[in-house]
Structure formats: structure tokens, C-alpha cells
Amino acid sequence: MLPQERAKILMDAPPNSWIALSEDESRVVGKGSTYAEAVEMAELEGVEDPLLIKIPDEWFPLVF
Length: 64
Hints:
Elements: H1 3-12, E1 18-21, E2 28-32, H2 35-44, E3 51-54
């Protein structure tokens, strides 16, 4: 998954939700309002060790 694709997925996700990516981070395998929901969806997709990302309530721009 390209960084631009990942950024779009994260920005489009509902605030305060969870996203589960496959082990190789190439696809979204689950999402939910709780950690458990995202893990359960990933397991139903056959992914046993997903990468879970918590979506913030609000996105803030960062200056480096």
C-alpha cells in the first residue's frame, strides 16, 4: 500500500474508530468502533496478527 493510499484510508475512517491492516499492511481487513470489533473482523478475514491503528477524534496538522 502506498503512503498516499494509507493516508486516504486513515483520513476517511470515522473519528475515534479502529482500523485493522493485514500483516503485510497491503489491505484493510477490519474496522470498528472498538479494538475488539476490528480484531474480530480481521480474524474473519483469516488474518491472525493484524496491525491495528486507532483513528483520533480529530486530525491536527503538524509542523516539523
